[in-house]
Amino acid sequence: MEEEAFDAIVIGGGVAGLSAAMTLARANMKFLLVERGEFAGAKNVSGGVLWGSDLAKLVPQYWEEEDGGWERFVNHRRLSLMDEQSAFTLDFKSSHWNQPPYTGVVVLRARFDNWLAGKVQEAIDASDFAEESFIATDIKVDQVLMEGGRAVGIKTGDEEFYAKVVIIAEGVNNLLTRQVGLQTEYVPADHMLTGIKEIIRFDQQRLEDRFQLRGRSGMSNEFVGWATDGVEGGGFLYTNKDTLSVGLVLSIADLRAQKKSPHDILSHFKTHPVVADAIEGGEVVEYSAHVVSSGDKRAMPREVYADGVLIIGEAANLLLNAGKAIQGMDYAMRSGILAAETVVEAKEAGDFSVGKLADYRKKLDASYIMKDINGFQDAVHVLHDPIMQHKVPNILCDFGRSFFSIDNQPTAKSKDMILDAVRRHSSLWEMAKFGFKAGRSL
Questions:
Q1: Are 236 and 48 in contact (CB under 8 A)?
Q2: Which of 221, 241, 300, 390 is least buried, going by the fewest C-beta atoms within 10 A?
Q3: Which structural domain, as residue segments, surrounds residue 392?
Q4: Where does a domain end: 340, 355, 375?
Q5: Are 252 and 110 in contact (CB under 8 A)?
């Protein structure tokens, strides 16, 4: 078994698993990546913005490829707070983001993951184990094989495969993570969201004219407030090459409590004047839904490693939305790289003990992932606070209508406008307390 064993088996062909596989292939490691979809990305319905520069490390000069796996780079960002008829928007656009490696690229996961899998295969072909490392699709892992409390491989159907380390990148469904004892039960609904999305197709020139895009430039827009019809959560709109990704992330617990349908809330969101104008004339070509973490670190497994096991990406509930951006794919990519680097170092040291694998936790804690997750937990809670979800958007939109209206009457001072808006929807004391709390969290 030792001679036939892989250095690592990676379970899952999403961003996390593929990033681990790329790192392993580049380091001349013998590995098996198992994906239950027909191809990498076949089961991934999510999409959005992949932030950061790790993609450039995995695929240098990816932006030079004519048929790369990404849609557009982001140089225009918006955060919109909505009431029923208005949106008060923080809008920022900068040519500083026009040069590669880009600070963020919009992706459609089915296309992006499949493209990245092709790059992994190229790295395998160039490695010393071109005939012994594999990407195996359309295979479901039934269990992680355990011997004496240590993970030693996987079982799929009647077949068993062995490895020094099993890297679990199964996504937010924590079946295998629970099986190896790193979580005792399903993650509570209080810490989970459902993402619901439509892909809306346009003539490419029409889309670029509508959103003032040039070349491969793109825009991301997040929404808070009326968008979710009273359910905890938020909305988003991202520009793809010739489509828009439009959707919501909604609290599963709040949906259940209010007995509301995600599809009905999405239909509601699309009627808002800002959104209706953005999607007018487009054709819905895809509809999908996906469970994601809320970013509350209480959803994480009790640990991200065990004897013979490393947990990465969504399987470890590595996600953060503190109001600045929805970060998940970048966390998945970095965690996959860090886990693979841990395996490479373990092989070089001839030490695959649990103590050595614990270096993954040290790497993760030292990375921006856990520093941000730990540092911005209060911001996560602020973003989901009912005051932020409802009262703040109403106040800002109310103020905006007063500030930008010209009605041939004496004009009030701006401070009086904002005070009047606060009094109509809240109180000075409530907003002062919330402002202090929000300021500390950020």
A1: yes
A2: 241
A3: 385-441
A4: 375
A5: no
Give the phi and the psi of residue 393 in degrees, each rounded to 5: -60, -40
How far apart are alpha carbons 185 and 298 in whole angstroms? 13
Residue 393 CA to residue 399 CA, distance in Å, equals: 10
pLDDT of the chain, 442 residues: tens digit per residue: 455 699 999 999 999 999 999 999 999 999 999 999 998 877 776 679 999 999 999 999 999 987 789 999 999 999 999 999 999 999 999 999 999 999 999 999 999 999 999 999 999 999 999 999 999 999 999 999 999 999 999 999 999 999 999 999 998 888 999 999 998 777 777 788 999 999 999 999 999 999 999 999 999 999 999 999 999 999 999 999 999 999 999 999 999 999 999 999 999 999 999 999 999 999 999 999 988 888 888 889 999 999 999 999 999 999 998 877 889 999 999 999 999 999 999 999 999 999 999 999 999 999 999 999 999 999 998 998 999 999 999 999 999 999 999 988 899 999 999 999 999 999 999 999 999 999 988 8
Same domain, 311 and 433: no
We report the CATH number of the domain holding residue 141 as 3.50.50.60
In DSSP terms, which residues pair with 79 in a beta bridge? 90, 222
Q: Is the dihedral of CA 6, 8, 10, 11 positive or negative?
A: positive
Indicate the burial class of 153 (C-beta count within 10 angstroms; 0-12, 13-18, 19 or more).
buried
Helix (H) or strand (E) holding 311: strand 309-311
**How far apart, in whole angstroms, are the C-alpha atoms of residue 54 and residue 57?**
5
Q: How far apart are alpha carbons 346 and 7 in whole angstroms?
A: 10
Is residue 364 one of the residues assigned to a domain? Answer: yes
In a domain, residue 100? The reply is no
CB 390 within 8 Å of CB 84: no
